Amino acid sequence: MFASLPLTALRAFESASRLLSFKAAAEELSVTPTAVSHQIRSLETWLGVQLFERLPRQVRLTEGGERLFHSLHGAFLEVAQSVDTLRPHRSGTNLTLSTTAAFAALWLVPRLGRFYARHPNISLRLDTHCEVIDLHQDASVDLVVRYSLDDYPNLYGLCLFDESFGVYGSPGQVALAARQTPTLISVHWHNSKLYAHGWQAWCAQSGEAWLEGQPTVREYDEEHYALQAAIAGQGLVLASNILVSESVANGLLVAYRGEIQVDGAGYSALCVPGRERHPPVRAFFAWLREEATVSGFAFSQVT
């Protein structure tokens, strides 16, 4: 059944598709760019379909190339993982997770001690750059935790948390807010679709007139800076119930009129289909499920 498959050409195609570069694929495979180009040309001839559009300074997958890449990448990944399980176990296993700096600092890192206690052989590397990673193209990242309103039909994962926003502050600031308009601490959102006009929505629900006149508003680029300002007693912050949970549990922040909540988006843990069977990824997904349950947040499978 598999004897006629051009495996060398398929390997060159998978590398070039993932990296979107014949030159980078050649470096990865330790061959010349001409050899990669020749392998892909022979594969296109064998299939009778064009797989790449050759542009002046780049290549782009055709529709047929996209279909082949997604199935081939998943198949190669599963074979690599199966082979890896047959090798003698090494002393440690690496796991790379991409997420936002705020989620890492405010929710994930404070809980990671429990993960390491259970899996001392797994070394977790956190990638907190702002760029959204295409998991089908970047095989160096095992899984991501994303904050979004979107669905991910081409990925395997869990919807961990449905988020809402409330107002929080230090105990002193919360007591003071009952008598006078507080300083308002907010976050400048890079994606306005995720959370637009948050303070207006919260004040409209609560009936508070804090936005009338010219209130003092302090704005930060990242949620963890805004929470630190609130912990330091600089005002009240409009914050995610997910990201504020550790500070509330430690008594650093308390809710002001906690029954008033504004809907947010959600956090999902995602990976390329098939990668969830890789032992470190499977262990991390299982741990996330438990932490979501312990934290009192619901989760569901998204694929």
From TrEMBL:
Organism superkingdom: Bacteria
A GO term, aspect molecular function: DNA-binding transcription factor activity
The keyword Coiled coil appears for this protein: no
Keyword Transcription among record annotations: yes
Protein keywords: Activator, DNA-binding, Transcription, Transcription regulation
Gene Ontology terms: biological process: DNA-templated transcription; positive regulation of biosynthetic process
Leader peptide range in chain numbering: none
Residue ranges annotated for the HTH lysR-type domain, each copy included: 5-62
PANTHER family, per the entry: GLYCINE CLEAVAGE SYSTEM TRANSCRIPTIONAL ACTIVATOR (PTHR30537:SF26), HTH-TYPE TRANSCRIPTIONAL REGULATOR (PTHR30537)
Family classification: Belongs to the LysR transcriptional regulatory family.
Name this polypeptide is given: LysR family transcriptional regulator
Organism: Pseudomonas umsongensis
Biological classification of the source: Bacteria, Pseudomonadati, Pseudomonadota, Gammaproteobacteria, Pseudomonadales
